Fold this protein.
Amino acid sequence: MPADEKVDPEKLKYYAKSVFDHMGGAVTAAMIYLGDHMGFYSQLRQTGPVSPESLASRLGLSERWVREWLYQQAAAKVIEHDNDGLFWLSPEAVAVLADEEHPAFGAGTFCQLPATMGALEHLPESFKTGLGTPYDAWGEDMARGVERGFAPWYRNFLVPVAIPAMQMKDRLMKGIKVADVGCGGGVAILELAKAFPQSHFYGYEISERALERAEDNKKKSGVDNVEFHNAARHPMPSDGRFDLILTFDCLHDMTRPDLIMKQIREGISSDGAWLIADIKARATFEENVEKNPMAFMMYGISIMHCMSSSLSEEDGMGLGTLGLHEGLARELAENAGFKSFETLKINHPINAFYAVRP
């Protein structure tokens, strides 16, 4: 600041408030994590309006701690309350915080919060060296949080919306081979496997933690037409055997998405299709800020997770959360040998969807 420029007291007041509003958001996010982790939201969904004493008793917890959590959540307008000292979830809060089958469910994402915030301990070194941290370093809760964050969309929209948009339903019903590259906990292809038992599905993933969850999810699902593979040891075959390939919310996290795209081109059949779902990004910082009200959060998540993962190796591209915009995705796909690149008209608040063909 120039020496002769004075601080405007009124602007200072509002600026300081905006800064501490962000601190308030971080604290509330931590309390939402506790609400999900401790079972508060699911219990509130079951009981309806309840007192702190009753909620604590039902969960076998200390009333004083439960009461303070309820006060924070009500003050933050996350939950409802009245003058009789009762607290409850609105129908909208149930959808977002307590109903894992609802497409709007979002509390699952918060279970990765401790791991994400734990990155702060290591980030100063990353800023010095330029190297990030691989995905598995963040532990089980990170893998579980990513899975729970994306699962509601897979369960509600993948089969009825995305597959018809790709014009692949009939082929899946007859029986084809499908690969999910970066399959995570396997929720997407398990949903497809249940819907299309004549087809066979192969999940490829380098995260050991995610693969453990995938195998566990497979057992619970009861399907027998899915296989999971550690891509570091058993990469996707390059003989053009797959009729449909999926990459969901993973390309921007990869160290070398350009090389993965070339592997996908080698693995896809001549009349096959590749469905990309990735963060809805724009080509410039200015466009991201103008069109995405969550841009500030996504750039922060990028530093703590997405860009860190994509820079976890020396030659990482470092795309980051908002790095794979449509133009770059199209360019990388063309460089990999694909001829057709189509943006699908699928309405999603965060992701863009592309149909790519040889």
